[in-house]
Structure formats: structure tokens, C-alpha cells
Specification:
The chain is mainly α. The protein folds into two domains: 68 residues, 434 Repressor (Amino-terminal Domain), CATH 1.10.260; 31 residues. 67% of the residues lie in helices and 0% in strands. The protein has six helices and no strands. The longest helix is centred in the last third of the chain and has 31 residues. The radius of gyration is 25 Å and the shape is elongated. The termini are far apart.
């Protein structure tokens, strides 16, 4: 089966595993899960992990603090706190941009004389 593009949890899991200096088999053994599970997660076959699997992987990788929070959030498919903040900022910028566009359009409409073609 062809390898699917790594993204989200797959990429994060692989990055933490490599940083820990572990092979997929070593991580699977340390987390007491199957090597196939680790492989499927890293290849993106499963885009998220079950909560118990994510907790076992995090413990085997010795994650703590922000990294643990990020890992568990991404494993569950939830956005991290940093992602939620970034999205909120982007949404605020979009609203500001949309408001400015609407104001420019309204100003153009008011400034243009009304053409009365065919109204007489």
C-alpha cells in the first residue's frame, strides 16, 4: 500500500518517535501496542488515535507539559489551544477585512449618480 502524506497526528507521532530515538517496533513495545498500530498511525491510515492508545504512546515517549497537551489534542482530532487562538485571530481579521470591503462598496454606491436609463 502506498504511503499517504503525513499530516496532523501522523507527522507529530513520527517526529516525537524519531526525537526519542525509537523505531516503530521499539515504540510499540514500550507502549504495549502492536507495531501495526504505530505504523498505521504514522502513515495516516488512522488519522486519530483512541484515547487509551494516545495515552500509552505519550507515556512511552515521555511527553509532558505542552507537548503532552498538544499530542493528546491532535490524537483526538481536537485543535490545540494554540490552533484555537490562531483561528480566532484569523476570523477576527476576516471580519475586519469584510467590514472594510463592505464600507468601500457602500461609499462607491453612495458617491455614484443614479442613472435613470429607461425609467422615464
Amino acid at each position: 500500500m502506498a504511503k499517504q502524506p503525513a499530516a496532523g497526528f501522523a507527522e507529530l507521532l513520527q517526529r516525537f518517535r524519531v526525537r526519542a530515538g525509537m523505531t516503530q517496533d521499539e515504540l510499540a513495545t514500550a507502549a504495549e501496542i502492536s507495531p501495526r498500530t504505530v505504523s498505521d498511525l504514522e502513515r495516516g491510515i488512522n488519522r486519530t488515535a483512541r484515547k487509551d492508545t494516545a495515552v500509552l504512546l505519550a507515556a512511552a515517549l515521555a511527553l509532558a507539559g505542552h507537548e503532552l497537551e498538544q499530542f493528546l489534542a491532535v490524537a483526538s482530532g481536537r485543535p490545540t489551544a494554540a490552533e484555537r487562538a490562531a483561528w480566532a485571530g484569523a476570523a477576527a481579521n476576516d471580519r475586519t477585512s469584510n467590514m472594510a470591503t463592505a464600507q468601500r462598496m457602500a461609499a462607491n454606491i453612495v458617491a455614484r449618480p443614479i442613472e435613470r436609463q429607461g425609467w422615464e
